[in-house]
């Protein structure tokens, strides 16, 4: 659907709940299990250069291509990670800018006989597609050993298909955050909410101070799916979330009615949404961030929902993260606060010693630490030092990700067929835009969502 950067796009245990109670921003994703597999060719470690404790082969004369749907600072910072790999191994690595959806891009490259050696894929479904099409190659034992050292079992499992390890998650995103204009909150006497009722009270306090509470990015369908997913996960629980993600229950289920009804408590209050429904439907994600953090203490909105990657957009407004722009976890609607996340996994398309070594490098703390220091990045690698992240906000988010262990849920729409969960003007994106236009029509929204889901899933 989208990458885990500015382009893009639970918890089940008391451990994660305790982290939230302590003020951490806990993160989680859903994992699919499977047995370990040691298949995959390449990856000989004879004659190696060692950077710290990481052993990599000598690859003088080797050329590699890496494809990802990353632009701007994200692409520039990732290239620095690739440059260090080249320095340590002697390989020449070229970054190939890909178009979204990357599966379609890769299909055209493979049809032309020029696939990249490695691709960064933004959804578990994309990894499965690459495997089903015969494109993806299993990671070898050496790479898997690096994964086991640095990743929780859940992060390893989400990169598996049919029990074999195909993906190494290099990047993650916490998509359960609400960013706010600190000066507006201070002037209003508002505090960070802990639950949904608190959020509604905070919104009223902000409104009474003369500032519209929320900016909603209705022009882009994907932030609307993320709003729904956070409410649904917290209110209906992880089992229902998994069932709906697989379309094992219908969108006409009472749990969906409850979540949409809750969502309408914000979307249905025209005075709480910058520009009302009509204005929100013309507001892009970038605009939603901008109108929250420009205008000093009288912006167009006080709060904007989205993931940690919004920091890139916030910085473009000249607001300082941690001072002007602060953040709190998406409040709990049910008994547990929700956390929805996404990620990008390195997958090998041309099996070779060089490709296997490159994915091993991307699975190492050495690689992730380079990009962590540059900002706008979050790693699921548990051995990246927390102080590598450049500010307190990112350090808090990163620590909570690692502390959450194996308790995680992946973005629901990213798990759905693309025609339902990831296409502008169609499926869930369009249906939730229609619901934003008329939040009183819960039953009508459910019927549309179910009809589109049934067509996409084929059931």
From TrEMBL:
Gene3D superfamilies noted in UniProt: Periplasmic binding protein-like II (3.40.190.10)
Keywords: Signal, Transport
Pfam families (UniProt xref): SBP_bac_1
Signal peptide coordinates: 1-33
Domain of life of the native organism: Bacteria
Compositional bias segments (type: Low complexity): 46-55
Family annotation (PROSITE patterns): PROKAR_LIPOPROTEIN (PS51257)
NAD in keyword set: no
Chain residue ranges for the region called Disordered: 35-57
Similarity remark: Belongs to the bacterial solute-binding protein 1 family.
Protein name: ABC transporter substrate-binding protein
Lineage: Bacteria, Bacillati, Actinomycetota, Actinomycetes, Kitasatosporales
